[in-house]
Specification:
Largest sheet: 8 strands, parallel, barrel
Helix content: 25-40%
Structural class: alpha/beta
CATH superfamily: Glycosidases
Number of strands: 14
Number of helices: 11
Order of helices and strands: HEEEEHHEHHEEEHEEHEHEHEHEH
CATH class: Alpha Beta
Strand content: 15-25%
Number of domains: 1
Shape: globular
Strand order of the largest sheet: 4-5-6-9-11-12-13-14
Distance between the termini: 79 Å
């Protein structure tokens, strides 16, 4: 009897699914609200206060975290599991940056991709880590020219992505940040042109769109030069409250001495606005060691000295700069070992 009931239920669900799939477009109903998540308020809400991030208890938070690779990639390679996020937690991360590539979003379909994000948010909630969702495209969104086919998107798809994400994760404190666009660049004119006022307007439109659904998540706005340069903020900051700015201060962005150039390019902004370095990293060359003068020590010392939160790239053995040597053993690379110490705030800097 139980078996018959199970079969009947399965047939009913199949017929419902087939009916939904065969429905003509004019019978499509409005979108459905997500199922309420009982853990949505488990972590304290993160907010902006002046140039700092604070939680709902009033504590100032300096975020240290790391980026994973695209969930679609990890799942296809059969490593998507809570164990993976437990390894991230062991690294000392307080926040996990999740890059969503437009091609993966389309191919998996938004509905199926949201299932991966829901799992990530659930695991991070259980492990006491916050989540940053990143629309991981590189190029000129204004002219819709991009650096690689995996980054191809459009303004409409970008707006739809954030509509979907904002409505889905409304009220979920674990999801603290929305990185609106990964790395804006014109690639020395090879991806067309875009002015800062044009880019400013696109970001302001996305922020307004997100806040029509949810005004608690913190939008993150990137500067030009692959999300490195924040100098336009001197005259034309984004016209929105409760946001933060992004920089990607990779070693090769400027020649040494780095610190005065970092101050000139993005560090100045931290005096007035919250800034978070959402992507940077390094790999060691043969024979190279990490001493006090190494880029790794100097960028961490600079960021923390300015009160700038940071997220290193990337907890994956194939994408670089890689922090893992192997999926099988989760053995850390040399930079992975370095960032584990940095994430646990174990680095010691010489006083000058």
């Amino acid at each position: 009897m139980i078996r018959i009931k199970f079969l009947l239920a399965a047939l009913l669900m199949t017929s419902i699914t087939m009916a939904q799939e065969s429905r003509p477009w004019f019978q499509d109903g409005p979108g459905h609200f997500p199922t309420p998540n009982p853990k949505a308020r488990a972590l304290p809400l993160i907010m902006v206060k002046g140039n700092k991030f604070i939680n709902s208890k009033g504590d100032t938070i300096l975020f240290r975290g790391l980026a994973i690779s695209d969930p679609d990639k990890i799942e296809r390679q059969e490593h998507w599991s809570k164990k993976y996020f437990e390894k991230v937690k062991e690294m000392g991360a307080l926040i996990v940056r999740i890059p969503v590539h437009p091609v993966a979003w389309r191919e998996r379909t938004p509905e199926k991709y949201l299932e991966l994000l829901d799992q990530a948010v659930e695991w991070c909630t259980d492990l006491g880590m916050y989540v940053l969702i990143d629309w991981h495209s590189i190029g000129n969104l204004g002219m819709e020219l991009f650096q690689n086919p995996m980054y191809n998107t459009s303004k409409q798809e970008t707006y739809e992505f954030w509509r979907t994400i904002a409505s889905h994760f409304k009220g979920n404190n674990t999801v603290a940040f929305y990185e609106l666009y990964n790395e804006p660049t014109t690639f020395r004119g090879q991806l067309g042109t875009i002015t800062w006022p044009e880019w400013k307007k696109i970001n302001e439109d996305i922020i307004s769109l997100i806040r029509s659904y949810d005004n608690e998540r913190i939008p993150l706005v990137a500067g030009f030069d692959w999300a490195y340069d924040l100098t336009p903020l001197h005259e034309y900051p984004i016209n929105a409250e409760g946001i933060a700015y992004v920089t990607h201060p990779y070693e090769y962005k400027r020649s040494q001495p780095w610190e005065p150039k970092w101050e000139e390019d993005f560090g100045f902004a931290a005096e007035k606005y919250p800034v978070i370095a959402t992507e940077f990293g390094f790999e060691l060359h043969p024979g190279q060691t990490i001493d006090d003068n190494h880029y790794g020590n100097r960028i961490i010392k600079y960021l923390e000295g300015k009160g700038i939160s940071w997220v290193c790239w990337v907890f994956d053995p194939e994408w670089g700069p890689r922090m893992l040597n192997s999926w099988d053993t989760y053995e850390l690379s040399q930079s992975g070992e370095f960032f584990k110490k940095a994430l646990h705030a174990e680095l010691k800097f010489q006083k000058k």
